[in-house]
Structure formats: C-alpha cells, structure tokens
Amino acid sequence: MRVMHVMAGAPEGGAENIMLESVLALAETELEQHVVTRPDNAFRIRRFREAGIGVDVAAFNNAWPFPTRRVLGEAIRTFRPDVIEYWMGRAGQFAPKEYRSRQIGWYGGYYKLARFANCEWHIGLTIDLLRHIREQGVADDRSAIIHTYADFEGADPVDRASLDTPADAPVALSLARLHEKKGLDTLLDATANVPGLYVWIAGEGPLEAELKAHCARLGLGDRVRFLGWRNDRGALLAACDVVAFPSRYEPFGTVTVDAWAASRPLVAADAVGPAAYVKDGENGLLIPKNDPDSLAKALSAVISDKALAAKLVAGGRASYEAQFTKSVFQRDSLAFYETIVKQAGPFPG
Fold first, then answer.
1. Angle formed by the axes of helices 306-323 and 292-304, to 10°?
2. Edge to edge, what strands does the sheet with 143-145 contain?
3. Per-residue CA distances from 100 to 12, 218, 237, 332, 337 (Å)
4. Contact at 8 Å (CB) between 249 and 225?
5. Nearest-CA neighbor of 166 among 196, 192, 195?
C-alpha cells in the first residue's frame, strides 16, 4: 500500500511532532510513503529521508496557491498513492477534489469540516475530537480515533550539569510552546511556592520575553531554565522528576503520553484533552486550570511522596500500554487505511 502525507504546519510544534513520529513509525511497516511539506524544518525533512521516505516541499500559501497545487498534483501523479492523509486544516485546504474517495483529514484540534471539504475520511486524535467531527455531519463509518504514541525506549538522560541544574535537585519539565494557552505563567507562580524546585521549559513562542520577565520578577532566575525548542524530549524526560502540564486550552496534549511512556509522574491542569484521559490520583494528578496554589501543592506532593509518585508512574504506564504504544498506533492506522482502499480501490491506472 502507498500512502502520501501532506502537512503545512509550523516549523515546530506538538502536532508537527506527531506527524513526524507517526510517519516514522509507519515506515517500520510494509507501507511505501511519500511526504509533501513546507521546507522550513530541516530536521524533519532529514529524518524522513533517512527513513527512505521521499519528500517534496511547497509553500502552502493560501494567497497564491497555484505553485503548491502544482507540486502536490505532480507528487500524486508520480507516487500514485492509495491513500492521502492531510495533517491539519491548512494542508486539507489543498486536497484535490478528484481524489476525495481516498483522502483523509487529520484533526489535532477543533477544525471546521470545511477545511477538509475534499476529504471523505476523517481521523480525530481524541474522543472529543471524534465527537466534534461527527457533530459536523461526518458518518461514523467514515471517521475514527487514532491515538498518538510515544516511544522513548533506551533514551539516555540529558546531563543536568549541561543545563546548570544540580544533580540532586527536584526537576519539573514542561514541554510547551511559549503561548498564553499553555499556562506557563501559572507554572512560574507555582514554582515560587515550591522551595528548591528547578523547572525546565522546553519550547519557543511569542511569550518568551514576557515569561522571562515574569520569572525575574518572581526571583526564579536561578531555578528556571528556558531551553528553547528541543528535539531530545526523551533525554529531558529521563532526567526530570515530574512532568508539569498546566495548559489552559488543550484538545489533547501529547505531553500526557510522553510522561506515561517515559515513566514519569504527571501533574496536569484540567483542560478538556488531559481531563478526558488523566484519572486523578491514578495515572496523574489533575488540578484546576489557572490555579498556582493547587499546582504548587501537587508538585510538592509528587516530589516529597515517593509512594505517590510510584503509583502515578505505574498507572500512567498502564494507560500507555493500553492505548498509546507504537504497535497500537501502527495497527489502528493500517486498519483504517485498508478500509479506505477497500472502498476507493487502488490508485487508478
């Protein structure tokens, strides 16, 4: 089976990571794959090519769509995919109508169905995203959940000294874009009330200067590290003591799965995505959004209570094994693709 993936996302981001890791996982199966994407992330493109996956690049400029349509059309005619998957709404807007019967729209957020007007099939990342898809009129037999996965097997911990962090200090890791939605100001406020806690914030975004200024006002400059965008999540997770996930808005949040896969205790705010999967006291601690005091208490509890931390790790690992392993993702993806090919037939010609 031949599958083409089309993505027009940001240079970096959570959904972009999901797409990269999904395609690489599928490269371990018998699928033949091809990618059409933007040229602005050399790391992603290199990883695809190292896995033997062909890549074409296009601008995906809505104001001048013709060059991208040419690139996409030529890639389809040359590669002859049985299935074409459009990752997120911008890519979906470029889907050619003549291939509708074999095209998938992938939802990592609450996108309008109009963005995938030329896609007959739809994948939601979460239970609630599948509800959103079907409430817009997509039939049950044309839509499905395919969960993301994480795999950090064998990841060596990053050297704490390289991040100016004492070897014996408790460390909370936040993997997040520096955006208002991610609640990182709440994390900083909470950190001020947890003596001795170091915090690593891995991500880039528009609030970098504001968050660093807030950090300075709180007197946290000696305990908070802004790491920028990182491609070594596994190493950071292996070196931290707890994962902090204080998002105000989150359709899902791959950080949840990352923490579970890396066997790290999770403290998450009750945004809709984490709230659908995190069971408080079982596979994580779930606290109210925008509540620094609750976040500080939860982080303190995990750091000081080794039995609690171990219980959360065991519960998270069980949730991971049940739904979020690479093998589960591969199985569910291949089954959905096979359903499409049975309905649409192989690529014509």
1. 100
2. 54-57, 32-37, 2-7, 83-87, 103-107, 121-124, 143-145
3. 29, 54, 41, 21, 14
4. no
5. 196
Q: Which residue(s) pair with 104 in the sheet?
A: 85, 121
- The mean per-residue pLDDT over the stretch 59-66 comes to 96
> How many Å apart are CA 89 and CA 109, to the nearest integer?
9
Residue extents of the structural domains in the chain: 2-149+325-344, 160-323
Looking at domain 160-323, does it have CATH number 3.40.50.2000? yes
Looking at the predicted structure, is the pLDDT value of residue 253 above 90?
no
Rg of the chain's alpha carbons, rounded to an integer? 21
Question: How many residues make up the chain in this entry?
Answer: 349
| 155-185 pLDDT per residue, tens | 999 999 999 999 999 999 999 999 999 999 9
Q: Rounded CA gap, 331 and 334, in Å?
A: 5
Report the distance separating Cα 174 and Cα 192, nearest Å.
16
Q: Which two tokens stand for residue 236?
A: 């950071």
335 Cβ contact partners less than 8 Å away, ≥ 6 residues apart = none
Q: What is the CATH number of domain 2-149+325-344?
A: 3.40.50.2000
Select from 70, 67, 66, 99 the least CA-distant residue to 85. 99
User: For residue 16, with 0-12 CB atoms within 10 Å meaning exposed, 13-18 middle and 19 or more buried, which class applies?
Assistant: buried
3-state secondary structure of 86: strand
